[in-house]
Amino acid sequence: MAFCDERQQARTRKRTRRTRLSGIASVQARHSRKCFYEGAWTPASKTGPKSDCTCRPGFFIVHHAGRRLVREPAGWNLQQAERLRDKRAVELREGSYIEPSKVTFEEWGQRWLDSLERKQTTVDSYRSTIAYAGDAFGSRPLGKIGVGDITDLNANLREKKLSDVTRGKHLRVLQSCFSAAVAHGLIARNPVKGLPSGQRPRPRRKEAAYFENSELPLLFKAFPTVIERVLFQCALKTGMRQGELLGLRWGDVDLTGAVIHVRQSYTGGIVTTPKTHERRDVDVSTDLVKLLGEWWGESDGAGDDQLVFPGPGRNGFLSPTSVLRLWLYPAMVKAEIPRVGPTGEKRTFHSLRHTFAKRALESDRPITWLSRHLGHSSVQVTTGVYGHWEKAERKRQMKRMEGVFGV
């Protein structure tokens, strides 16, 4: 019995010693080999103009995690290092400290992609980000990747001539990847979040490219086949996305109720849910109901499971690329409509959606209705893209401001 008590006391002393060691955090300096200290480790006090140090040393937070000695990079600024030391000391005392992970970025990046509950097309779009970061970080442990590494990656992407918009997208994806690592307890903080705003890309918001009203009759006159005219009229008069129209089946077209049920999208060669997973109902104008009815008749009364706009390929879908290069662009050339629109941006299939939004707002449709109709994730998204076209509403609200000041 006495032997058991002694063993328990020894375990208690060992835990106490580990707790005492783990609660100690200090700042140490690592000097260069050309310095007076010849690459040695010293206390932070042996730096600065009043010391023998002749270099600009890097600072590290030094503490024990159990029996293991941890040296955590803290940059070149002593004050920032001291603040981080105090933070680590609190975490060590409270037991909230997370030891830097040995999991490499290469391992975690693939695990993160495989775990995502997102559309396959969305996951595939993230792979280029992980590939760029993998080239930069590769086999380095997650805990060894800091803000400076993110800065270097951003600079490298800029040297590759990637646009501000694209670099911003890569940083957002990378931030989500590291946030997941924090949530899983692999690292203590997200290095992308620490990137100063002044070092982040500032993309110029592009104004949506649309078609002028005077151009539309010329454009539709230039389409040689019925399927082209029907497809592009549906895009113009509903604002539906290209993938939503190419994936549309007759069973989702209610001509009696004048509504189209958007349930799927054909994107990236696969059938998937609509963007933002928002299944929605799109109301249809009377003239479009008539046009679709005539097209259904020309399709020999196609069944509910058949595509509204079938293609010649093995899977039966129209190719989005062919719709652009073989239908839209030749019609624009024939109608002498330039690729670059009034906003200075090139016009594509999506420009028909932009044209719908522009005419809706200029015709005094509420932006909240437009947001739901287009299937945006929020009104803020709609306002950010199309808010500058809401002229009628702005003028009406300004009119109501007349006389409110009393002078």
Give short descriptive properties of this protein.
single chain; 407 residues; alpha+beta; DNA polymerase, domain 1; hpI Integrase, Chain A; four-stranded antiparallel sheet; three-stranded antiparallel sheet
Write a brief structural summary.
It is built from 15 helices and nine strands. By secondary structure, the protein is of the alpha+beta class.
Write the layout of secondary structure elements.
Blueprint: H1 2-22, E1 25-30, E2 41-43, E3 58-65, E4 68-73, H2 78-94, H3 105-115, H4 120-137, H5 147-159, H6 164-183, H7 216-221, H8 226-238, H9 242-246, E5 253-254, E6 259-262, E7 265-267, E8 270-272, E9 280-283, H10 286-298, H11 320-334, H12 350-362, H13 367-374, H14 379-386, H15 391-400
Antiparallel strand pairs: 1-2, 1-3, 3-4, 5-6, 6-9, 7-8
Q: Could you explain how this protein is built, in words?
A:
- The protein is an alpha+beta fold and 407 residues long.
- It folds into 3 domains: 17-94, no CATH class; 105-199, Tyrosine recombinase, N-terminal domain (DNA polymerase, domain 1); 216-396, hpI Integrase, Chain A, CATH 1.10.443.
- Helices cover 47% and strands 10% of the residues.
- The protein has helices spanning 2-22, 78-94, 105-115, 120-137, 147-159, 164-183, 216-221, 226-238, 242-246, 286-298, 320-334, 350-362, 367-374, 379-386, 391-400, and strands at 25-30, 41-43, 58-65, 68-73, 253-254, 259-262, 265-267, 270-272, 280-283.
- Strands 2-1-3-4 form a 4-stranded antiparallel β-sheet. Strands 5-6-9 form a 3-stranded antiparallel β-sheet. Strands 7-8 form a two-stranded antiparallel ribbon.
- A hairpin with a 2-residue loop joins strand 7 (265-267) and strand 8 (270-272).
- The longest helix is centred in the first third of the chain and has 21 residues, at 2-22.
- It is elongated.
